[in-house]
């Protein structure tokens, strides 16, 4: 008798795990407050902290609906990767990495102008290994995992940039990411 009850409880509880959780309106309100503070604050430390919090929330797919649809935070992250403030640039590229598997975000990042911006930012921040690693990871996710096609101009620039990075930066993680980007692309619309 107790076994049947436990089995019934397991079945009932497993149903709840398959269903998406209800998005808490308090969380949505908090995310909106963070976003508003990021957009309006003049204090650089507060701006950094709110952006870091938003990037952390971007890691959880349950937050995508509000972060992407309501706030378009991915656009703010993309806009901020070329910030003069290295911390904001790094947090922004990490925020994009956290959301890159979402089709709407991958589509935005996969556009030629977005890819060119990412490549330019990586080239300008060769002194920041963390930025380079996350930038390469973002390219891997968008180009390889989300299958975003890229044009010839970007393909050439990407190959040139990766060759330069491999020659100038002695970091095994950077080399591994460059290798991942360059390998196994047979389709002409992809990288190689």
TrEMBL record:
Question: Which residue intervals make up region (Disordered)?
Answer: 1-22
Basic residues composition-biased segments: 1-14
Q: SUPFAM superfamilies, alphabetically?
A: ARM repeat
Against InterPro entries, the record matches this protein to: ARM-type_fold (IPR016024), ARMC7 (IPR042462)
Q: Which domain of life is it from?
A: Eukaryota
- Name recorded for this polypeptide: Armadillo repeat-containing protein 7
Look up and give the organism this protein is from: Dermatophagoides farinae (American house dust mite)
Q: Which gene encodes it?
A: ARMC7
